[in-house]
């Protein structure tokens, strides 16, 4: 079999695309543009690699998906990595995972009950450990908290395995590097370097790929001794904001991971939103409109007067003991959250042909905002929103996998 024949090429009928193959050592890493597809009545643009490019299963590296949730990470990695084991404690998220991935790889239960000797050896260990104690909206207890402290269970399981995964990724909110002066990140860094990894971190915002503001920290670790030429740099770059640069100065043996900057996003929020979906009653829309701040109200009124088709996402907030509806006007949805409490549900004000309507984001729209418009979402609306609001945006993890994780795994395991 030739090297070219090892890379599977599947071109969906009617799709238009632009693709470039770049060499990483002797392995192939497909760089992709986008595929345009219909999702219901809403036009969506999804990463083309998910539909058209990837390796045959026997050429994929293997992955462990800890805190797997609904399986968005496994979907993002699937063109290049095959998930052979996944774990989460949530039965609702398991149902979503099983609707999109082979259910037999999933182990339902607490990570505290997992033993390393029962976990298969793999090339990559991904751990999106809970963020509640690191979120500025949470208790901010950091790694001492009961939820975010499960990071230690992840590394315990890896340490118990017969063979330490050569590549590991810990993912969390930006509070990991900003809370308490960065001390929680320093703890993560020291733990992983103490296990024999070389470690660095990047911050990637989903807004680069999809119309949703969603910054996340990705701590990337690789076994010591691996050649990092071309994959690391001498200093910070676009994916290393000030908080990352600060914690880098606090850590020893820091690695500045090198990633190409993505092209400007083409997908708009209005491409994701279904303007024909059922909306609230006129009276409810009027009440929401009345909650708009004096700064935001003229923006919506102008869009109506001009007959523009616009989507204004927003959240209810309490400001000085008064409830207000605060919207975004930049064409980007706010960060999806888990639906605990009414303020966590993202609202939409829609203008079209001079009319104003309102409603909640639909479940499949949240999937599109996570870069997975075709993701199956069984269960209730709240379960679907929870599955997406608690996940990792697919094109973000795909970008990291194509440009860093797969090349690292190839260098550890030998060239293809």
Task: Provide tags for this entry.
single chain, 416 residues, alpha+beta, Rossmann fold, 7-stranded mixed sheet, 4-stranded antiparallel sheet, 14 helices, 19 strands, disordered N terminus
Rg calculated over all Cα atoms: 22 Å
Residue ranges: pLDDT <50 for 5 or more in a row? 1-52
User: Looking at the structure, what is the overall shape?
Assistant: globular
Q: Give the full name of the CATH homologous superfamily of the largest domain.
A: Vaccinia Virus protein VP39
Number of discrete domains: 2
CATH class of the largest domain: Alpha Beta
Distance between the termini: 12 Å
Strand neighbour order, sheet with most strands: 9-8-7-10-11-13-12
Number of helices: 14
Return the average pLDDT rounded to an integer.
86
Structural class by secondary-structure content: alpha+beta
Q: Within the CATH hierarchy, at the fold level, what is the topology of the largest domain? A: Rossmann fold
Percent of residues in beta strands: 25-35%
Number of distinct beta strands: 19
CATH architecture of the largest domain: 3-Layer(aba) Sandwich
Helix content: 25-40%
The description of the largest β-sheet is: 7 strands, mixed
């Amino acid at each position: 079999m030739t090297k070219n024949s090892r890379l599977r090429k599947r071109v969906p009928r009617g799709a238009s695309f632009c693709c470039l193959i770049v060499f990483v050592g002797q392995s192939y890493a497909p760089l992709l543009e986008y595929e345009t597809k219909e999702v219901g009545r809403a036009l969506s643009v999804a990463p083309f690699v998910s539909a058209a490019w990837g390796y045959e299963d026997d050429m994929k590296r293997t992955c462990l998906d800890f805190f797997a949730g609904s399986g968005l990470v496994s979907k993002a990695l699937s063109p290049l990595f095959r998930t052979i084991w996944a774990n989460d404690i949530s039965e609702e998220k398991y149902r979503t995972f099983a609707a999109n991935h082979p259910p037999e790889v999933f182990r339902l239960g607490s990570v505290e009950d997992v033993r390393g000797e029962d976990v298969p050896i793999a090339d990559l260990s991904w751990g999106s450990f809970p963020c509640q104690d690191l979120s500025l909206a949470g208790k901010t207890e950091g790694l001492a908290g009961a939820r975010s402290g499960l990071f230690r269970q992840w590394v315990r399981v890896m340490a118990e395995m017969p063979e330490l995964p050569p590549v590991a990724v810990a993912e969390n909110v930006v509070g990991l590097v900003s809370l308490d002066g960065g001390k929680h990140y320093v703890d993560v860094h020291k733990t992983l370097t103490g296990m024999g990894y070389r470690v660095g971190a990047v911050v990637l915002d989903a807004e680069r790929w999809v119309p949703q503001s969603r910054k996340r920290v990705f701590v990337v670790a690789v076994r010591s001794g691996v050649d990092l030429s071309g994959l690391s740099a001498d200093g910070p770059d676009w994916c290393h904001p000030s908080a990352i640069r600060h914690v880098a100065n606090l850590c020893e043996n820091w690695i500045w991971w090198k990633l190409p900057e993505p092209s400007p996003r083409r997908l708009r929020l209005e491409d994701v939103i279904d303007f024909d979906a059922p909306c609230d009653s006129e009276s409810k829309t009027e009440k929401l409109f009345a909650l708009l701040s004096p700064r935001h109200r003229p923006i919506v009124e102008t869009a109506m007067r001009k007959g523009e088709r616009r989507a204004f996402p927003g959240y209810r907030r309490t400001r000085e003991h008064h409830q207000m509806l605060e919207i975004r006007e930049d064409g980007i949805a706010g960060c999806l959250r888990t639906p605990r409490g009414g303020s966590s549900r993202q609202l939409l004000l829609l203008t079209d042909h001079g009319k104003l309507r309102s409603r909640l984001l639909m479940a499949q729209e949240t999937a599109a905002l996570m870069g997975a418009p075709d993701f199956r979402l069984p269960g209730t609306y709240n379960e679907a929103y929870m599955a997406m609001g608690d996940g990792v945006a697919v094109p973000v993890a795909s970008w990291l996998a194509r440009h860093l994780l797969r090349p690292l795994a190839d260098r550890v395991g030998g060239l293809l």
